[in-house]
Known about the structure:
The chain is an alpha+beta fold and 184 residues long. The chain has two domains: 7-87; 117-183. Helix content is 57%, strand content 17%. It is built from five helices and six strands; from the N terminus they run ββαββββαααα. It has helices spanning 20-30, 75-87, 95-100, 102-105, 113-182, and strands spanning 7-10, 13-16, 35-41, 44-49, 56-60, 66-70. A six-stranded antiparallel β-sheet has the order 1-2-6-5-4-3, with helices on one face. A hairpin with a 5-residue loop joins strand 5 (56-60) and strand 6 (66-70). It is rod-shaped. The N and C termini lie far apart (121 Å). The model is unreliable at 89-105 (pLDDT under 50).
Amino acid sequence: MNYLNGLSYDSGTYVWLKTFEELERFVLEALNLKGKWKSPGGDVKVFKSEEEGAYMIKLRGPRSKKLVIQSDDAEENLKLKLESLINRDPKDVNPSCEASTKEVCSSVNELTEPSVSQFDGLKADIATLVDITSDLITEINSMRSKQKDFESVIRKQDSEICRLSEANLILASSLRSLGNSTFK
Length: 184
C-alpha cells in the first residue's frame, strides 16, 4: 500500500492527510512500530511505542492533522525514516505525464474524503449564512422603510407644532390688544 499520499512535510511540520485508521496502518506497516493508540481527550490521538526509545506520535485534530513526534533518545531516527519515506518517488505516476511535466504529475493528490466532506460542510455553512444574510437584508430594508415613515410623521408633527405656536402667538397678541383697548 502506498502511504505517501497521506504524509506531507511543510515548514518543519508533518501532516497526515488521510484517515486515522490509515495512520494506524502506516505506523504499523511502513514505520514498523508496535505500540498502543490512545485518545487522551478532544481530537488528539497519541501513539506510544513499546520499543526501546519510546516513540510518541501525536495526531492533532481532524482539521490541522498535524503529527508531532517525541522521543527520549531516538526522535531523529524516526524523523529521518519519515523523510526518507516522503522523498521516495510515488509508484502511481502516469508515465505519459512523467515524460512531459514530471514536477506537476508526480505531485500527490492531497484531497481525501474527509477534505471533501469538510468542503461539503463548509458549503452547507455558507448556504446557511447566505440565507441568514438575505433575511437580515430584508429586515434592514423593512426597518429603513419604517424609519422613513416615522421621519415623515415627525416632520408633519414639527410642522403642526410650528403652526400651533404661531397661532398661539397671534392669539396672545390679539388678547393683549383686546385687553389694552378694553382697559383704556
